[in-house]
Design goal:
By secondary structure, this protein is an alpha/beta fold. It is built from 9 helices and 12 strands. Belongs to the LysR transcriptional regulatory family.
């Protein structure tokens, strides 16, 4: 079995680019770092580094070991945190995955309430839409793909249906309307608010195709806050999830979209474990309650 400490020293050398850099970062002597590298090479039977001028550089095998060990080291760090929690008398740790609009709209109040009810718990929040690799959340708030596929080791609990809305500047000619047919936006200049090819982008483009047109994206903002600022400046309109358009500046407003209404489904994935996880179940209860009573999170048109 590989020694986790030696593996972490090895990864520090790969990341730092040299034995001396790793030694400085880890608070070790360069001799101690070299000894750990030699011991790891014997354990693995691999040549992990090769000479490059006066220094060393990872071999292809070394680079692969560094890449593949990331998940194992992440899990080891999680176990180390569990030990620290037990030693310091904390009752547990909860890792929660989320995407940005759900994080902004729901998580601050829910985490505050959860930690008030369970003061000994440590909550770790992970923005999984940009950091999904090597993360195993206890509960993960996700956007369902159209095929409704699940995730091994998790049970899926539907939370909410989130319709998309049109975000327009207040000087737009549609500003006095409450709803707009999607086809009526065909001639508008569009500002994207998601990555091309992402699930949210595909939902919007698919709905536009159903309405008989392809949107003309002039600005690829790729995230909600920037897109809203482009709309405020009068560059164009944007179609985004209602959850992302909860808080808008005074010179921007939103309209409901009809014929058709793009929709995204939001679910919680709860990790199935051998032992009950009361904190995860309590957070799930809060999420379900929040989405059963929309007034508690603030309605938007």
């Amino acid at each position: 079995m590989l020694d986790p400490h030696r593996l972490s020293v090895f990864r520090a050398v790969v990341a730092g680019g040299s034995v001396q850099a790793a030694a400085d970062n880890l608070g070790l002597t360069s001799s101690a770092v070299s000894q750990h590298l030699s011991a790891l090479a014997r354990e693995t039977g691999l040549v992990l580094f090769q000479r490059a001028g006066r220094g060393i550089t990872p071999t292809p095998a070394g680079l692969e070991l560094a890449a593949q060990s990331e998940e194992a080291m992440s899990q080891w760090g999680r176990l180390d945190s569990v030990v620290a929690d037990l030693r310091e008398g904390r009752s547990g740790r909860l890792t929660v995955g989320y995407f940005s609009s759900a994080g902004a709209a729901w998580m601050p109040r829910l985490v505050k309430r959860l930690t008030k009810e369970l003061p000994d718990i440590t909550v770790k929040l992970v923005l999984t839409e940009v950091t999904s690799r090597n993360v195993t959340p206890d509960i993960d708030i996700v956007i369902d793909p159209p095929d409704g596929g699940g995730r091994p080791g998790y049970r899926k609990v539907p939370l909410a249906t989130d319709p998309f809305v049109a975000v327009i500047p207040t000087r737009h000619h549609l500003v006095h309307e409450r709803t707009v047919a999607l086809a009526d936006l065909r001639s508008e200049t569009w500002v994207s608010n998601d990555l091309v090819g992402s699930l949210g982008h595909r939902i919007v483009v698919s709905a536009c195709a159903a309405a008989g047109f392809t949107p003309r994206f002039t600005v690829q903002a790729q995230e909600y806050h920037s897109a809203i600022q482009f709309v405020a400046a009068g560059v164009g309109i944007s179609v985004m999830p209602r959850l992302a358009a909860r808080s808008l500046p005074p010179d921007v407003t939103r309209l409901r979209i009809t014929d058709p209404t793009p929709m995204r489904e939001i679910s919680a994935l709860v990790r199935e474990t051998a032992r009950p996880n009361p904190a995860a179940e309590r957070l799930l209860e809060m999420l379900l309650d929040l989405n059963t009573h929309p007034a508690r999170r603030g309605r938007v048109p």
